[in-house]
Amino acid sequence: MKLQFGTWVRPMFGEPSGGDLAVVRDLGEAMLVAIVDVLGHGEEANVVAKGIAEFLGETEETDLQTIIEILHSLSLIHI
């Protein structure tokens, strides 16, 4: 499947980076499209958002409910 997409995000005023980003991944028979919006601002939120994006880019899991459960369990480690 050919999909063209673009994203545009900007950090909160005064912050060099933020916790918002998008992930688009071709899974062959399907597409994974995710909008990541981490609570908070700045570099700390950016690190968490990049970790989520990395997970979504590498996971072999295709069941959405399982992906959400894994992400929630991982987020508990960072609290």
| Beta-strand content | 15-25%
**What separation lies between the terminal Cα atoms?**
38 Å
Assembly category: single chain
Radius of gyration: 14 Å
Shape by Cα distribution: flat
Largest sheet at a glance?
A: 2 strands, antiparallel
Fraction in helix: 25-40%
Contiguous low-pLDDT stretches (5 residues minimum) are none
Instruction: Trace the largest sheet across and list its strands.
Output: 1-2
Summarize the structure in words.
With 79 residues, the protein is an alpha+beta fold. The protein contains two helices and two strands, in the order E-E-H-H. It has helices spanning 42-58, 64-77, and strands at 20-26, 31-37. The chain has a two-stranded antiparallel ribbon. Strand 1 and strand 2 (31-37) form a beta hairpin. It is flat.
Spell out the blueprint of helices and strands.
Layout (H helix, E strand, L loop, with lengths): L19 E7 L4 E7 L4 H17 L5 H14 L2
Antiparallel strand pairs: 1-2
Salient structural properties:
79 residues, alpha+beta, 18% strand
Question: How would you sum up this structure in a few lines?
Answer:
With 79 residues, the chain is of the alpha+beta class.
